């Protein structure tokens, strides 16, 4: 099998959300998705950016209603983030994880 096929089947790595803005991944990565839970009835909004702050390309957004859970998954190929993955917490205090390769 070609090596690209092998890397395509690699498992994603999970990084826990800190509840505030965070540089989740430094350096090139493939953003695969996220799962977010609102445990504080805060109507959470989270934006994912390629880069080191919230001015990089907007890759994904997720909103979670009060006491709910939501997820986004960009399989099988994900979204290339050559400058890293930055999590911008627009509102609330999210818990959950992002997934990348």
Characterization of the model:
- The protein has 101 residues and is mainly β.
- The chain has one domain (3-100): Sandwich (Jelly Rolls), CATH 2.60.120.
- The chain contains one helix and nine strands.
- The protein has one helix at residues 3-8; strands spanning 13-16, 22-25, 29-37, 44-50, 58-64, 69-73, 79-81, 85-91, 95-100.
- Strands 1, 3, 6, 7 and 9 form a five-stranded antiparallel β-sheet that branches.
- A hairpin with a 7-residue loop joins strand 4 (44-50) and strand 5.
- The longest helix is centred in the N-terminal third of the chain and has 6 residues, at 3-8.
- It starts with a helix and ends with a strand.
- 25% of the residues are buried.
Radius of gyration: 14 Å
Helix percent band = under 10%
> How many individual helices?
1
Order of helices and strands: HEEEEEEEEE
Shape category: globular
What's the CATH class, please? Mainly Beta
- Average per-residue pLDDT, rounded, comes to 91
Can you count the beta strands?
Answer: 9
CATH topology: Jelly Rolls
The N- to C-terminal Cα distance equals: 20 Å
Counting structural domains, the number is 1
Structural class: mainly beta
The low-pLDDT segments are 1-5
């Amino acid at each position: 099998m070609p090596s690209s096929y092998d890397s395509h089947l690699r498992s994603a790595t999970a990084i826990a959300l800190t509840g505030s803005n965070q540089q989740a991944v430094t350096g090139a990565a493939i953003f695969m998705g996220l799962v977010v839970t609102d445990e504080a009835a805060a109507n959470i909004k989270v934006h994912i950016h390629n880069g080191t702050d919230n001015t990089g390309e907007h890759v994904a957004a997720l909103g979670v209603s009060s006491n709910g859970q939501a997820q986004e998954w960009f399989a099988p190929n994900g979204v290339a983030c050559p400058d890293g993955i930055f999590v911008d917490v627009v509102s609330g205090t999210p818990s959950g994880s992002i997934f990348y390769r």
